[in-house]
Amino acid sequence: MRLNSGRLWVVAATAVVVSAYGAVTVTSAQAATGCNVTYAISSSWPGGFGASVTINNFGDAVSSWRVTWNFGAGQTIQQLWNGTPSQSGSQVTVTNAPYNGSIPSGGTTSFGFNGSWNGSNPVPTAFTFNGVPCNGVTDYPSPSSVPPSSVPPSSVPPSSVPPSSVPPSSVPPSSVPPSSVPPSSVPPVAALPCDLYAAGGTPCGTAHSTTRALYASYNGPLYQVQRSSDRAYQDIGLLSAGGYANGAAQDSFCANTSCTITKIYDQTSYHNDMPISWGGLWKGSGPNGADSGANAKALPLTVRGHKAYGIRIDPGMGYRIDNAKGVPTGAQPEGVYMVTSSNYTSGYCCFDYGAGVNNHTDAGNGTMNAIYWGTACWFGDWGNPKSPCVGTGPWVEADLENGMFHTNTGSNKDYNNQGVHFPFVSAWLKENGTTNFTLKYGDATSGGLTRPFSGPLPSNGYSPMRIGNSILLGTGGDNSPNGKGYFFEGAVTIGYPSDATENAVQANITSAAYSF
Description:
516 residues; mainly beta; six-stranded antiparallel sheet
């Protein structure tokens, strides 16, 4: 954002699932190969559908994989995550991503995609896994080489149906009931936000937090600090895998001196770590027009009783990673959430978290997809004609460039949405790239989500969207540096998350027991 700068279709709620088993008999000198592929259509809309595919490896461990099938009615893959697709006519081949090629004996992996169809959308009935048809029972070379216990009884279906993939982005949340998510796709209780997003078919492309892990298995650094006394750096990590920040480590390192947060680590396998931004069209408060980093001691809090620190963004501060890997671009669907606060906001541009363009300028309407949090009534101040807002905020708004949108027409006119006032707020934005964007908010300590808007994207250049893959925190897309706010955690998702997934993430956020 610059400094001053129809009828909706209903998602089919019934998943269509097909499974295929297969095996090859080999000699004791060869590796056994056996497989089950489960293909699930969990959402469908005119001309499009979402699906997920789970591979069960009943043979020997593999270090890479390739799944092939044929579409029977001219369907095509439009977007795929957790794999690399190719399609020649009706034949589809998906190979592993760099991070999920290894599947142990008895293990599974999965990927999801959005596809197009015309006329009919029958499910494929035959699959191959690394060249082996999945249509029988595995035959292992010898009992000693692969434990028999890894072979499920032939009468038992695969242990889980993969979660729904990206819902049709043109459909508002109210048309996707939670019951449309198969019970078997519900992750374990220990699942954290990015586990939940992955289970819903919309995995995280970024996962940033200074307070806790966003994956149950994550045990890496959360953020980096630099102390002023000797210019030394230290990473601040977790008390345990999937746990909370080690606030005591920061206290020890920064004792008797000041510290600056110099980097926010990304917990995904893409490693989209955010350093302090180099600036942009508008200059920050750092050297040579760069932004400044946040005071590491400025925002103490507790998370589930553990001391941690958030990020207090003041004017001139900002973090940004350009050319982020894995995240949506162009008109690809994308979701964003963050945990912030009503305690520290302003009406200036722009306290944002989300996506912009890599050259840090105003690249035109529809080139951003970022949550703006604050009291700005952009169309009341800069609109032509001006359109005053109902209420005084703060609000969750969509910074889509050249406008912070409460609705597709601009300003908030909802007398039930005059401002959100919680010490900890969860803010949510998702857009499908062509026809829909949705805003939500919640109390990050209790309760569910409220949806103030879900509807068409704005006119005049916002459809299709043209989002970039520069992930930013604390500024506008052109580095507009005058906003302020608190940041505790957030993620950008690959795809348009379902209501059920966002509800599950909200429930997990409230369980973290944020407190000042």
